[in-house]
Amino acid sequence: MSAEHKNIQTDSPFTGGVFIKTYGCQMNEYDSDRMAKLLKQTFGLEMVNEADKADVLILNTCSVREKAQEKVFDELGRWKKWKQQAPNRVIAVGGCVASQEGDVIRKRAPVVDVIFGPQTLHRLPAMMIEALSLREQTQANKKLKKHAIIDISFPEIEKFDNLAAPESNGVSAFVSVMEGCSKYCTFCVVPYTRGEEFSRPFADVMAEIESLAEQGVREVNLLGQNVNAYRGVMADGDIADLALLIHHVSAVEGIDRIRFTTSHPNEMTQELIDCYAEVPELVSHLHLPIQSGSDRVLAMMKRNHMAIEYKSTIRKIRAIRPNLSLSGDFIIGFPGETCDDFKQTLALVEALNYDRSFSFIYSPRPGTPAASLPDDVSLEMKKRRLTALQAMLNDQTAAISEAMIGTVQRVLVERLSRNEVDEVSGRTENNRVVNFPGSPELIGQFVDVEITDAYTNSLKGRLVAMPEAEKFQSRQYHAL
What we know:
The protein is α/β, with parallel strands linked by helices.
């Protein structure tokens, strides 16, 4: 445990649990998980599923989605009533909205005790203690004014050096290898809320993955806002890129499946593409956002690549892995987008055959260059375009699922099925959830499953076989 919080817990000031509500990306999900572990290690706080059962309420916010600020203040309005019923409880707001609008939150929502950014979540226990101390002072001296404790600085790698030791929550785990982004796309707020790109040291990443493997993790998802820009310093001073990291992760005993997300097209190096030929543990699935199929719009977005370059990258990988499953992100109605621009996006989607992509109507983010661009496209037009794009994407997803019927897929069994007591659930390489009859002893194993049915959000299958060497090496995850 770090110097930041190792001496904080003597007699914990909290007797209940912690409730964390998370908005946004997988990085936020990862951060929330680390917060929960940190508060458990520091104060003995257990996660609870209902706010009124918690001593500590945390909002982990996201600036990317539309009306992000409004959602935060709406939730804090509900929590204000909860706080009035139990004034000694603590409310904290973290994440990207906190980083971007910390002072606004402090002024508009005095119910909040602690405000912290994505890079200062490791300081949360100390900030909570400080907030409790300030509360006692203001109660004793009415002349003092209560205010939120705030830290939205960018201490970079310090965050990872001061978090609780990694703990496995199952057979698949996210591992954050870098944070921030230095691309400064005109629509994106990430560089302003999480800072510029910085990579964790190579040895630290490997140590975390090795620890998770010892705990039974079989699949790791290497995580970062711009993960393929990873450049981690090695012990000898050399720099490891994501391709080299993947090679080393594949050699970790027990790790048999590797994913990475989210990537930028400009960082898809030839070395990383070659990993698809050289590393069988790397899945045949890639999430690679492009945002638009129009070169004109890409230039206005400052993406610094053209659609043909993006297509070339995908075709190179599919020459190695013909069954590559591709997903992406699309922004519809960017300021100045014409009908022809949108048609180019549709043409790109049709040509590359996407699977389970994310698409949104553009909404301006305060402080980003695109927020000041003139926009003459009506909201009604944007909605029609989004509907057309999503219809095409949904058709592609459904066709891929239907084509999987009758095939045998390698599935990592993750848990018991939520729907049937005699079934287990796992994921295919292309990230499809599959439910099939099986016993809890299969959890943690790779098995062969024939797909029998395809539904909107999942597949159904039957167990065909599992590797002979793994039949009697089941990890015991009955409690998951």
